[in-house]
Design brief:
Layout (H helix, E strand, L loop, with lengths): L13 H52 L5 H4 L6 H8 L19 E2 L9 E6 L4 H6 L7 E7 L6 E5 L20 E3 L4 E4 L10 E10 L16 E3 L7 E12 L2 E2 L3 E2 L3 E4 L10 E5 L3 E6 L9 E10 L3 E2 L4 E4 L4 E5 L6 E11 L11 E6 L9 E7 L5 E7 L8 E10 L14 E2 L18 E5 L5 E11 L13 E2 L3 E2 L1
Parallel strand pairs: 1-2
Antiparallel strand pairs: 2-3, 3-4, 5-6, 6-8, 7-9, 9-10, 9-11, 9-12, 13-14, 14-18, 15-16, 15-17, 15-19, 19-20, 21-22, 22-25, 23-24, 23-26, 26-27, 26-28
C-alpha cells in the first residue's frame, strides 16, 4: 500500500484549544460574579429590612420614653441580643446582621468603621451629651444608624425623626389612642382611630401574648384594622395590643401604642367523675377516678357525705387537686353512708363550673347478737315467785338489744297466771311472742311459786337500730334446763 492511500484526520490546534478554554473561563467568571452579586443584593435587602425594623423600634422607644437609648445601652460589647430585643421589643433575629459570626447575638456596634456585618449606632443629646454617651440610662435626643452595602460598597445612613439641634415638628399629627376589641372566638380587631392632619390616613398593627408569655412582633402595617384569628385553647389567656400611625405622601406620624386588651377562654365543664368503694366495715373508703381536663389545666375535686345519722355532714369539702379518695368511720351499725363527688378543671387564669355529682353508697349492716349467758333459776325468799335471770348479749354501736321469750309449765298443772290458765308453752309460737324489751336491764322473768312444778324458759335476742329501723338477724335460741319449784 502506498503512502498516498493513507487517511489523515484533522484535529484542533493548540491555539484553538486555548481559545475555547479562555472563553469557558470568562463565562464561568461572569456566572460566578453574577451569583455573588445576587447573593450580596439579597443580603443587602435583609440589612435594609432589619435596619428599618430597628429604626422603627427606636422611634417607638422615643414615643414611650421621650428619649433614645444611649450607645452603651445598645452596644454588643455590653449587651446580649436577648436584652436588646427586650429593650426594643423586637425579635432577637432582627439584631443579627448577615455575614455576622455564628456566635453573634447582637450586631449593633457603637464605634469603629462602617461594615456590612454590623450596624453602627451613634446618638447625641442637645441637652446633656455626657449622660447620653456615658450612661446606660439614655437621655439621647437623636441617633444615626449606618451599615455598608455589600453589593456596591456604599454606606446607608438612617437618621432619627427627631434631631438634637431643633425642635422636631411632625408633618403628620399622631392619631388617637387605638384599642383592641376581642370577640368570643378570639378575633382581635384594632379600633378605628382619627387622624387630625388633612389627607392623612391611619395604619394599624397588632401584637399578641399568650398566657403572659413574650409578646409577638407587631404585624405588618395595614390600612385596614388588623385582625388576628386564633383557634382558642380552653383556659388560655390572650392579650392583644394595637399601635397606630397616620401617613400622607410617605410622611409618617409618631406611633401611638394603645392599652392592652385581654380575654381568658372559658373551660368547659368536665365529665362526671366515677365513684366507687374499695373497702368497707368499721372504716369505709370511697375512691373517684381522675377527670380529663384540657391542656394547661388540671382537675380538682370536692366531696360531701350524706348519712341518715344526721344528714349531710357539712358543706362541700375542697377543692382538692391531689386527693382522689376519702375514708370515713362507719362503725355505727344500721346507717347508710353516701359520698358525693364533683369535679372541675382550673388553671392560673380561670376555672370551669363544677360537674354534676356522682356518688357511691354503703349501708353498714347490723351484726346479729350472740346467745344470752349466765342463766340462773331461783326462788324468792318468801317463796312467792320463781325467777329466771340471765345476762343479755351485747349489740354493735348504734343499736340496742331486743328479746323475745317463752315459758313452759308441765301439762296437768294449773298455770293460773297465764291468760288462758292452761298448761304448756305460754305462747303458741314465736310469731306471737307476748313480750319484747329494748332495755338491757330487762333480763329476767318470774312466775308464781307452786311447789314441785317443772318449769322451763327459752329466749332469743335481736339487735335493732331504733332510728333507722334496720335490724340484724335473730341470734341463737337459748333453751334452759327443766327446773322444779
Amino acid at each position: 500500500m502506498s503512502l498516498k492511500d493513507s487517511t489523515y484526520h484533522k484535529a484542533f490546534t493548540i491555539v484553538e484549544l486555548i481559545v475555547v478554554i479562555i472563553i469557558i473561563g470568562i463565562l464561568s467568571t461572569i456566572g460566578i460574579y453574577s451569583m455573588i452579586k445576587i447573593q450580596q443584593t439579597q443580603r443587602d435587602s435583609s440589612r435594609q429590612s432589619q435596619s428599618q425594623i430597628i429604626a422603627e423600634a427606636l422611634e417607638k422607644y422615643y414615643n414611650k420614653n421621650g428619649e433614645y437609648p444611649s450607645p452603651k445601652a445598645l452596644s454588643n460589647s455590653d449587651n446580649s441580643g436577648a436584652s436588646i430585643a427586650s429593650l426594643l421589643n423586637v425579635s432577637s433575629d432582627v439584631l443579627v446582621m448577615p455575614n455576622a459570626s455564628s456566635n453573634t447575638t447582637n450586631s449593633i456596634v457603637t464605634s469603629g468603621n462602617v461594615s456590612s456585618n454590623a450596624l453602627l449606632y451613634t446618638a447625641i443629646s442637645s441637652t446633656n451629651n455626657s449622660i447620653c454617651q456615658n450612661t446606660v440610662s439614655g437621655g439621647c435626643t437623636s441617633f444615626t444608624l449606618k451599615y455598608l452595602k455589600e453589593a456596591d460598597g456604599t454606606v446607608v445612613t438612617i437618621t432619627s425623626r427627631h434631631n438634637s439641634t431643633e425642635t422636631y415638628t411632625e408633618l403628620v399629627s399622631a392619631p388617637s389612642d387605638p384599642s383592641v376589641i376581642i370577640t368570643s372566638d378570639i378575633t382581635a380587631t384594632a379600633s378605628t382611630v382619627d387622624c387630625a392632619t388633612a389627607g392623612s390616613a391611619p395604619e394599624y398593627a397588632i401584637r399578641e401574648s399568650v398566657n403572659d408569655g413574650a409578646w409577638s412582633d407587631y404585624s405588618s402595617w395595614s390600612s385596614a384594622p388588623s385582625v388576628i384569628n386564633d383557634t382558642p385553647s380552653q383556659g388560655y389567656k390572650y392579650e392583644y395590643q394595637a399601635e397606630a400611625r397616620c401617613v400622607i405622601d410617605n410622611n409618617y406620624s409618631s406611633i401611638i401604642e394603645g392599652s392592652v386588651a385581654s380575654r381568658v377562654e372559658p373551660i368547659n365543664t368536665p365529665s362526671v367523675p366515677t365513684v366507687w368503694i374499695s373497702a368497707s366495715g368499721d372504716n369505709t373508703t370511697w375512691n373517684w377516678g381522675s377527670t380529663s381536663c384540657p391542656t394547661g389545666s388540671s382537675a380538682s375535686y370536692q366531696y360531701r357525705t350524706l348519712t341518715n345519722v344526721g344528714g349531710y355532714t357539712s358543706t362541700w369539702y375542697g377543692p382538692y387537686s391531689s386527693i382522689n379518695q376519702r375514708s370515713l368511720s362507719t362503725v355505727y351499725q344500721g346507717y347508710y353512708y353516701t359520698t358525693e363527688v364533683q369535679a372541675r378543671c382550673e388553671n392560673n387564669y380561670t376555672q370551669s363550673s363544677w360537674s354534676n355529682s356522682n356518688s357511691a353508697s354503703y349501708t353498714r349492716p347490723v351484726d346479729a347478737p350472740g346467745q344470752l349467758s349466765n342463766f340462773f333459776f331461783s326462788v324468792s325468799s318468801n317463796r312467792i315467785d320463781y325467777i329466771f335471770s340471765w345476762t343479755a348479749p351485747l349489740c354493735g354501736p348504734g343499736t340496742s338489744a331486743y328479746h323475745r321469750y317463752n315459758s313452759w309449765i308441765a301439762p296437768g298443772y294449773n298455770w293460773f297466771w297465764t291468760s288462758t290458765g292452761q298448761a304448756g308453752w305460754l305462747f303458741s309460737s314465736w310469731s306471737d311472742m307476748g313480750y319484747w324489751s329494748s332495755s338491757f336491764d330487762v333480763n329476767s322473768v318470774s312466775g308464781p311459786y307452786i311447789s314441785g312444778i317443772p318449769v322451763r324458759h327459752t329466749a332469743q335476742y335481736i339487735c335493732v337500730n331504733a332510728t333507722t329501723g334496720m335490724q340484724s338477724s335473730w341470734g341463737p335460741v337459748y333453751l334452759s334446763n327443766i327446773y322444779y319449784t
